[in-house]
Design brief:
46% of the residues lie in helices and 11% in strands. By secondary structure, it is an alpha+beta fold.
Length: 501
């Protein structure tokens, strides 16, 4: 009995940890018995290939069709073994075969069955030798990978254009190429009881705070999911405030962004199969930063960054302020403007709050339709649909022309901050509701609530609002503004605070 009491659970399968299903089980010493056991384990899986060969000593080759390089397996494994046996120089021990016969760069001698199966299902080849209860895991991966392209969601006018892909090791190499130092560390682990997804904790030794690293390791140990298919699965599990619309864990598709954050003392989480890398801690001010800021002149970069802050304020405030002033404080408007708005609203029966709510919801629906539609019709759908819907609503006296202008301003400023799109929608709805009920007092109450919420949040022990209200020039120079490189260092930002809780 190879698996003892756990054999029945192994054959039946189920959403158990691989180690829990197999324990410390090892192979038989007989190739025939090993093949029978493994065929029973993978019963019903026609992609699993078993090949027995050898004259004086028998070998069993196990591989997954479509995930290995067949030519590499034949030339580097099968042919060398057969040739060594014909010439009578084949070593009698498994380690000698690994060192002297096989023409594979990465060969591991594995004793636990769970480790063998884990590597096999990731594209490696399993070589079992008669007379041994261990096996060789050969790196012969050959599955199809997407080539390097530019990021669709983080396009840049200057600087590097390459983006991460779904290929795990390719993403690591993109980081390694930019950080050629032995202090760059990759710590591997597997998450997901069924998917067994590779997750890497990437950091710079001597730059990243040890307390921050320990906190990340502790939170990753609490992640218990059946499957990890994207980095957002982990981001939601380890963030500080999962119920907040503002994310305390960052994400990016660009290697240069990850490298710049590593140089600042942050940590990156790379998930196999995901082109998005998680970075942490993540602060509120990072919503308004762009990697293009560091590839352009600092005066222009400071101006565009301040525009993003202004765009956020306008996006969450424009509908609410229009409602509050028009319904509760019309005396704040010039008489000419008030008469113009009154004429535009002539014949419209629904209140201003309902007008804005209707148009905002319609615009959000058009945006979602544009995102989900095929690229060829996505953008035209959003633009033409918005124009036709707006003009038709004005002609039908459902909404007024000033409301169309306010919603258009909201849409444009919202597009300035794509990563803040969700929080902006929620903040807009909150402020619009309070302003429609209480006027400017409600608007002030809503803004205070948002500011209080942001100021009390933390991201892995770091205050979320850091560098927005700087207490020194060091925090000012890359917070609200982007200082020149002579006065700005991309060194550690967090220091000991990174590990505090």
């Amino acid at each position: 009995m190879i698996f003892g009491r756990r054999k029945e659970r192994l054959i039946e399968g189920g959403p158990y940890e691989l180690e829990d299903r197999m324990g410390d089980a090892r192979l038989f010493r007989s190739v025939e018995r090993n093949e029978k056991m493994l065929r029973e384990l993978f019963d019903g899986d026609n992609s699993m290939i078993f090949r027995r060969f050898g004259e004086k000593r028998e070998f069993l080759l196990l591989l997954v069709d479509g995930m290995i390089d067949n030519l590499n397996v034949n030339q580097s494994v099968v042919l060398p073994l057969e040739e060594a046996q014909r010439q009578g120089c084949c070593p009698s021990d498994i380690d000698g075969i690994a060192d002297k016969v096989l023409a594979v760069n990465d060969v591991k001698h594995v004793t636990k069955v769970s480790d063998m199966i884990d590597s096999l299902l990731y594209g490696d080849t399993l070589l079992i030798m008669d007379g041994y209860s261990s096996a060789l895991v050969l790196s012969t991966k050959g599955f199809v990978r997407r080539g390097l392209t530019s990021s669709e969601n983080e396009k840049g006018a200057a600087g590097p254009q390459e983006a991460f892909t779904e290929a795990f090791m390719t993403n690591l190499s993109l980081i390694r190429r930019k950080l050629r130092t032995p202090d760059l560390k990759f710590s591997f682990r597997k998450l997901g009881t069924v998917t067994r997804t590779n997750v890497v904790v990437c950091y710079l030794r001597g730059v990243t705070d040890e307390g921050l690293l320990e906190e990340v390791e502790r939170r990753l140990a609490t992640v218990h999911l059946n499957g990890i298919l994207d980095s957002n699965y982990i981001a939601e599990m380890i963030c500080d405030t999962p119920r907040s619309p503002f994310r305390t864990v960052g994400s990016t598709e660009r290697p240069d962004v990850v490298v710049s954050k590593l140089l600042e003392g942050r940590i990156a989480l790379i998930v196999d199969g995901s082109p998005t890398v998680v970075t942490l801690p993540h602060l509120f001010m990072e919503y308004f930063q762009s990697q293009n800021d560091y590839y352009s002149g600092y005066w222009f970069s400071t101006f565009t960054r301040l525009l993003r802050y202004l765009g956020f304020i306008i996006a969450i405030s424009a509908p609410a302020l229009y409602t509050a002033v028009l319904n509760f404080h019309p005396d704040m408007l010039p008489a000419t403007m008030l008469v113009t708005i009154a004429q535009a609203r002539n014949g419209i029966l629904i209140p201003t709050v309902a007008e804005l709510a209707f148009m905002l919801v319609a615009l959000c629906i058009l945006q979602e339709a544009g995102v989900r539609a095929p690229p060829a019709i996505g953008s035209p759908l959003s633009i033409v649909g918005g124009l036709i819907l707006g003009q038709a609503a004005v002609d039908a006296k459902l909404v007024s022309a000033p409301v169309i202008i306010v919603v258009a301003v909201w849409a444009v400023t919202n597009m300035m901050l794509p990563n803040l799109r969700g929080p902006v929608m929620l903040c807009t709805a909150l402020l619009l509701g309070l302003s429609g009920a209480l006027g400017l007092y409600g608007y002030s109450l809503g803004v205070s609530a948002i500011a209080l919420h942001v100021s009390t949040m933390e991201s892995f022990g770091v205050p979320y609002a850091s560098y927005i209200m700087p207490y020194s020039f060091r925090e000012l120079r890359d917070g609200l503004i982007r200082a020149n490189w002579r006065s700005m260092s991309r060194g550690p930002l967090f220091g000991i605070r990174g590990g505090e809780k």
